[in-house]
Amino acid sequence: MAALQALNEAVVACRRCPRLVAWREQVAREKRAAYRDWEYWGRPVPGFGDPAARVLILGLAPAAHGGNRTGRIFTGDRSGDFLFASLHRVGFANQAESVSRDDGLRLTGAYIVAAVRCAPPANRPTPEERDNCAPWLEREVALLPDVHVVVCLGGFAWESGLRLRAALGGSPIPRPRPKFGHGAIADGDPWPLLGCFHPSQQNTFTGKLTTSMMDAIFVRARELAWGA
Length: 228
Hints:
Number of strands: 6
CATH architecture: 3-Layer(aba) Sandwich
CATH class: Alpha Beta
Largest sheet: 6 strands, mixed
Radius of gyration: 16 Å
Helix content: 25-40%
Distance between the termini: 29 Å
Strand order of the largest sheet: 1-3-2-4-6-5
CATH superfamily: Uracil-DNA glycosylase-like domain
Order of helices and strands: HHEEHHEHEHEEHH
Number of helices: 8
């Protein structure tokens, strides 16, 4: 726990990517009208959850007015509303919503982290920014020895998961690469990847991702982590 805390403090101080630093701080200064009274976080966003997690949830990056505002990934945005409601229904979260990093949300058996720790313009990090952030992800996951499955929210996270597994000394990236899809599984050591459509409004508002579809992913993750 102390090692995770020390790592998270180092993450928060990171300024490796000039474009991301400039964007996250600009958003924090200018704010969105609905949050004009908020003091934005405006820094890299560390992971959070149960240090004994058997399920790791890997996202893309903090939202400009979500995690970049609240200081906790998926907290305070519509994607997080959808995600945390599902985690609560399946039994990984003690409450169904999260609006701030001190609102009492607790995860049991799960840990959430982003492949890129700063909010990127248009939600699109560059390959260089992804690679700059990869060592933070590798160090954090190395401190979570009980992980048995990684749920990848979207194609970017899926690609990052494949790279992460190889970087930690596990299975090399297969050729051809396993294709991302909702419910897709990429077996390998030390844990399989489980694909899930990202809970963005683009997917949830159009019905591409429904509540039952997301719940089914976390039920499957629980089966993979603890045995069917």
